[in-house]
Specification:
The structure holds 2 protein chains of 2 kinds. By secondary structure, chain A is of the alpha/beta class. Chain A is built from 13 helices and 12 strands. Classes of the chains: A alpha/beta, B alpha/beta. At the A-B interface, helix 4 and helix 6 of A face helix 5 and helix 6 of B.
Chain lengths: 322, 277
């Protein structure tokens, strides 16, 4: 899609997933008068200033109070409203975890949680502001759908797809200090729970999500230069996992590398490993954060430090094929 | 005071007695449970379910019903007893307290008819109730939302986030009731982590506050009838109550926050409570 043809939301999102999500909130609110945004002092983080000015009655400011914000979202949902809670990934998962588990997941309320600054996009901010366990937390919540869009455009489609979800959902987004990749995903065919196969290949499969989809594609291109066919799956939905895509990749390529901006335990790599261990044991490598708190630094440097990069993904694939 | 009004109060006192007896019945069936905080809340629950709340027990999901959230979820035996008496659930469910696959466990479960929110983790109900009150306001509905909070529960900081927000939003359709029985699991609230001056705290947070004797049915009814206490503030009823009210050996003792209920204990409790009409 050329720039000239891009819809307004895509132009205004400036390739930032958090802004794409905020724009989608406005679109969803236009489609359904039950939709209401909840901010935890996150209006500008999500680009909701215009929405607030146009529809002040549709945005609830809960203040810097994630526990209360989560409870309010649940209570609203019980009355038939469609709350979309806009929070910081590190805080909206960990700070309000019991409200998330009890009031939202256990009570199975239709709350959409947009989580900006997922992973280490706030690399310079330190461990208090990194969210590298959020997927493990959310994946362990029964009833929860967990999505990590690969770019701003996919974020828009993921947010719009929540119109048709009955239970709670979590959408992990980027932050404002980092340029996000633009992943050339085929069309607008986003489906919750259905992986995008972005490259075909029969030697190895790279299963990636979020910010590591672009490096995964670059790794596949590098491997192709050496005659190695690397399949790339954009596993945007961590839960429910696309079992068929994972099992087919294991059967057809026999080697799996997962890549995520998250600890290698409990997130995408964990989900894939659990499935394969039970159904089809397959040689694997996992790209992601080790069991430690992340160093401080610019996001690109921090990613490189921990091997969340094209080079490390390429090396993991080669290592697996030795 | 008219004789009709007096008869009404006596009817509600009888409802409360049914609730208390059924609390002990459910706990006896389970073998143990939270008699203390269930009994302290019984008079207020009777006034709520049989006087104040607008409900349709045969249509539990009626969209315009008033909402009640039991934030102190460990008093679920009393809530179940009220829901059974109101007709939301069958009376036989009370004998299924804690039982295998029962809808009626130690804490409220939203899947049971009449239960508005799954609670049990303390400090959750106020913000959830706030969401319900906001849902009413945003949809132009006039249903009212009421949440009962325990006193020990107020030690959870999330309550104060909610207290601040509800006042800031001017949610006059929201009422909180503090079941102030002065006892928590391990001792007296005032010794564990005191709340006083609790009325001034809620006033300072922007709520319209009234203090009542939570076992004086006339006072409970009068307070509920006076809601909202202010047109632009949420209302707080601080109900001074007695833990374990109605059974002498269980009253005002943290040992009877949650305890075993043997056949002997059960018979003594029922004998002290007396027969309802």
């Amino acid at each position: 899609m050329s720039v000239q043809e891009a819809p307004e939301w895509e132009r205004r999102s400036e390739n930032q997933s958090r802004l794409a999500f905020g724009l989608a909130v406005g679109e969803l609110a236009g489609n359904d008068d039950k939709v209401v945004a909840i901010s935890a002092d996150t209006i500008d983080l999500f680009g909701l200033r215009g929405f607030l000015e146009a529809s002040p009655e549709r945005l609830i400011e809960a203040g810097i109070a994630e526990q209360s914000a989560m409870g309010i979202a649940s209570g609203l949902a019980t009355t038939g409203m469609r709350p979309i809670l806009c929070g910081y990934a590190p805080f909206i998962t960990a700070r309000s975890l019991e409200q998330l588990r009890n009031d939202v997941a256990y009570a199975n309320q239709r709350v959409v949680i947009g989580a900006a600054c997922g992973g280490i996009v706030l690399g310079m901010a330190g461990g208090t502001h990194h969210a590298v366990e959020d997927l493990a937390i959310m994946r362990n919540m029964p009833n929860m759908t967990v999505v990590v869009p690969a770019d701003a455009r996919q974020t828009w489609h993921a947010a719009m797809a929540t119109e048709n979800l009955d239970g709670p959902s979590y959408i992990r987004l980027g932050g404002k200090f980092e340029e996000e990749p633009v992943t050339d995903l085929a069309g607008d065919g986003f489906r919750v729970g259905r992986a995008d196969q972005l490259r075909t290949g029969g030697d190895v499969t790279i299963i990636a999500c979020g910010a590591l989809v672009a490096p995964a594609l670059a790794a596949a291109d590098a491997l192709a230069g050496n005659g190695i066919g690397a399949r790339v799956l954009n596993m945007h939905t961590i839960k429910p996992l696309d079992r068929d895509a994972v099992l087919a990749a294991a059967a057809e390529t026999g080697a799996i590398v997962t890549a995520e901006e998250h600890r290698t335990t409990g997130g995408l790599g964990g989900a894939v490993a659990e499935l394969l261990a039970l159904e089809q044991p397959t040689a694997m490598r996992m790209i992601g954060m080790p069991d430690e708190f992340c160093i401080v630094g610019p996001t690109a440097k921090v990613r490189e430090h921990y091997g969340m990069s094209q080079a490390a993904i390429t090396e993991a694939c080669r290592d697996l094929l030795k | 005071m008219t004789s009709n009004y007096q008869a009404k109060l006596e009817g509600l006192q009888n409802d409360a007695l049914h609730i208390r007896r059924n609390v002990w019945r459910a706990l006896h069936a389970a073998g143990s449970g939270h008699m203390g905080g269930s009994s302290s809340a019984a008079d207020i629950l009777a006034a709520l379910y049989f006087h104040h709340l607008r409900l349709r027990p045969d249509e539990p999901d009626w969209p315009d019903r008033d909402r009640f959230v039991l934030s102190k979820g460990h008093a679920n035996a009393a809530l179940g007893a009220a829901l059974a008496r109101a007709g939301f659930i069958d009376d036989s469910v009370l004998d299924q307290f804690y039982a295998y696959l029962s809808p009626f466990g130690m804490h409220p479960d939203i899947k049971m008819a009449g239960v508005e929110m799954s609670t049990g983790g303390l400090g959750h109900g106020l913000s959830v109730a706030m969401g319900m009150a906001l849902g009413a306001r945003m949809q132009g509905k006039d249903f009212r939302t009421c949440v009962m909070i325990g006193d020990g529960e107020l030690q959870e900081g999330s309550n104060w986030e909610g207290a601040m927000a509800a006042a800031h939003m001017g949610l006059s359709n929201l009422t909180a009731i503090l079941d102030y029985n002065k006892i928590q699991q391990s001792g007296h609230v005032g010794q564990m982590m005191g709340l006083e001056p609790v009325a001034q705290k809620w006033d300072a947070f922007g709520w319209a506050v009234r203090e009542i004797d939570g076992h004086d049915m006339a006072a409970v009814v009068e307070a509920l009838d006076a809601l909202p206490f202010a047109s632009d503030k949420p209302s707080m009823i601080i109900a001074h109550t007695i833990k374990g009210k109605g059974v002498s050996f269980a009253e005002d003792s943290f040992l009877w926050h949650n305890n075993l209920v043997t056949d002997e204990v059960y018979e003594k409790a029922l004998a002290e409570l007396g027969e309802p009409s």
